[in-house]
Amino acid sequence: MNKGSASFDINHEHPDYASKRAMWRMYRDLYAGGEQFQINADRYLVRRQKEPGDVYAERLSRCFYENYIGSIVDWYTATLFRREPVLTFEGKSERAKKFFSEFTEDCDLKGTTLTDFFRRQFIDALISGKSFVLIDFPRLGHPAWTRAEEDERGASRAYLVSYAADELINWSYDDHGHYEWVVLRTQSLKKAKIEDPAWVKLTRWVYYDKENYRIYEQSEQGTARNPVEVVSEGRHGVARQARVPIVELRVSEGLWLLNKAGSLQLEHFNKSNALGWALTMGLFAMPVVYSERDWNQVMGESYYIQLGPQDRFGWTEPEGHVYQIAADNLARLQEEIYRVCHVTHAGGAVSGSTAQSGLSKQRDFAITQEVLRAYGDAVKEGMKRVLRAIEAAREDGLSVDVSGMDEFDIGDFGTELEDAERLLNLGIKSPTLQKQVFKKLAFQFLSDVRQEVKDRIGREIDQQT
Questions:
Q1: Which of the residues 386, 408, 448, 453 has an alpha carbon 20 to 30 A from that of 101?
Q2: In a domain, 182, yes or no
Q3: CA nearest 122: which of 434, 339, 382, 305?
Q4: Please, which residues bridge with residue 402 across strands?
Q5: 12-57, pLDDT tens digit by residue?
Q6: Is 303 part of any domain?
C-alpha cells in the first residue's frame, strides 16, 4: 500500500496515562532492583536539606537496595503457575483442536507456551495493575477466498502480542465500558545491516478500533528525525466480532502489589541507606582536643600532637541509641511490606524474635491461598477471553474453558482425589458427571504435558461407556 502521513496527533496521550507514567516507571525499577535500580537511584534517594552535592554524590555511589517486593511478586507467580491451567476444547472439529494444541505450545510465533506468556502478563499486572494481550492474525497481500486457502496460507494462524500498561498511551470507551479504540506505542533500536555505523531508533504506533487497524512508524538516527508515516492499514482479525482485539488482564486495587508496598519499599530504601551511611561515617571518627590554649598543630597519621598538663584528647563517637531505633524501624518496615502483600508467613521479623504459633501461621497462609485463588481467577478469565475470541474469529465451533489454578499445596491433589471419590460414591446416575470428574483429575495431575496429549486423554474418556 502507499505510505502516507499521519492524519492526527498520534502522540496525544490519555490523561490517565500521563498521570501514571512516572509511577509505572518507578514500580518497574522497584521490582527489577539490581543495576536497573542503581542507574535510576537518584530519583529515589532523598537528598537532605542543604546537603552538599559532593556528599550526596558519594552517598548515591554507595547506595544499596534490599528488594523485598520483587521477591514477593516472583513468589506469587511461581506458586500460582506451579501447576499449569487446564484447557479444555469441546467440539467435533479435530482440525480446530489440532490448531489450539499447537497454539498453546507456541502462542506468539516465538516459541512461547500459552502458560509462559500469561506468566509474564501476570507479573506485569502485579507491577502496573494491568497488562494487555493483543490478538492478531498474519496479514496477507490479498484476501483468501476459502477456509482451506486461509489455513494453507497461514492467515488463520492467530498469535498473541504482549503490551505493558505504559505502552497503551491513548484510548476511549463505548457506552458499555468496552474499548472504542486504542493507540499502542513501542520503541526499538534497529540496524538494517551490521555494517551500518549507527543504530536507528524506530517508534511505532498501532491504532485499533472495532473493525480496522492502522500502523504508523517514525525513524530517528542521531539528530535526524523522519516524518511519521502510515505503513499498513486494513481490517483486523476480530472485526466480525465488532470489538477491539485487546484483552486486558487486570488485578484489583487491593491485589496490586507494587501499589500497596511501593511506598514502604522506598521508605525502607532511604532508611537503610541512611543507617548504612551513618555507620560508615562512624568508622571515620573526628578527633577532639580539649584545651584552653590556641590550637594550631597539624594532625594526621604521620604527625604527633603535644598536649599540656590540663589538655585532653578524644574522638567523636555516637552512643548508638539512634542506630538501634533505626534498626528496629527497618525491621518493622520489612514486616509491613510482607503483611500488606499477605505473605507474613514468608517474611517474619528480621531479628527473628517474633514467635508465631502454628495456628497463626496456618491462618496467615489460608489468607495467602485466598489471594492466590483470586489471582488465579483473574488469569483464567483473561485466558478464556483470549481463547474464545480466537475461536470466534476462526469460527471453529468449539467450546473453550479454562480451569485449575486453585490448589497450591503438594498435598492438595490427595484431597482432590478424596473429594472426587466421595462424590462418585454418592451414586449419582450421570455418565457426564463421571467423565468430567475423571477429566479434571487427569488434567490436573498431568498439567505439564502437551495439550495434544490432554486432548487425546479427553477423547478417550468421552468414548468410555
A1: 408
A2: yes
A3: 382
A4: 87
A5: 999 999 999 999 999 999 999 999 999 999 999 999 999 899 999 9
A6: yes
